[in-house]
Specification:
The chain is globular. The chain has a single domain, classed as Maf protein (Alpha-Beta Complex). Helix 1 packs across helix 4. The protein is built from five helices and seven strands, in the order E-H-E-H-E-H-E-E-E-E-H-H. The chain has a seven-stranded mixed sheet with strand order 2-1-3-4-5-6-7. With 199 residues, it is of the alpha/beta class.
Length: 199
């Protein structure tokens, strides 16, 4: 099964491809994606933004397409940075986002946090279903690890005993928020496909 995705984020694409490989599905990027101006992400929630993007890009592709809107929620910051995760430091990039997060958590003992991924699946531009994946962890006192992207070097995952930045893609792809959401989507599509064959 071929499923299109719409992303220009190379880190996300690596995770999409790995999850697709595990699920025996082929994930392909929308061919003309670089020529399409990105929509404004005006949603107040991950779900709203994911649906907005999926319907926008899905109208240009025949078949299934999914988009992901994801980010980090920190309990002590009231769920921030949330939907603004990629723009937390006014679009200055990952290093600036991480530095601002550490600054805002100075002296804070409760460092519980979670990564959230909301995937919206469309077919021929029409919404089919959404899938939510999460993974719980803690914000470390400093960055650690060369792997991953975004907040991964700060996200300490207790079962691994290290940050996502210290975990390679193989390990992260089993437990990450994005992997969990994708697994739900692939399971849904498999069940849908098997049901249609049976009938």
């Amino acid at each position: 099964m071929i499923i299109y995705c719409a992303t220009t984020n190379s880190g996300k694409l690596r995770e999409f491809n790995k999850a697709g490989e595990i699920a025996s599905c082929v994930v392909e990027v929308v061919p003309e994606l670089k020529e399409i101006p990105a929509p404004d992400e005006t949603g107040a929630t991950f779900e709203e933004n994911a649906i907005l993007k999926a319907e926008y890009y899905g109208a240009r592709v025949k078949g299934y397409l999914f988009t992901d809107d994801s980010g980090l929620e920190v309990d002590a910051l009231g769920g921030a940075p949330g939907v603004y995760s990629a723009r937390y430091a006014d679009g200055a990039g990952d290093a600036a986002n991480n530095a601002l997060l550490l600054k805002n958590l100075t002296g804070v003992e409760d460092r519980a946090a979670r990564f959230v991924s909301l995937i919206a699946l469309v077919k021929d531009g029409r919404l089919v279903q959404t899938f939510r994946g999460t993974v719980e962890g803690l914000i470390a006192q400093s960055e650690s690890g060369p792997h991953g992207f975004g907040y991964d070097p700060l996200f300490y995952y207790p079962p691994f005993g290290c940050t996502f930045g210290e975990a390679d893609l193989e390990r992260k792809s089993v437990v990450s928020h994005r992997a969990n959401a994708l697994r739900l989507m692939f399971d849904y599509l498999r069940e849908l496909h098997s049901t249609s064959i049976a009938t």
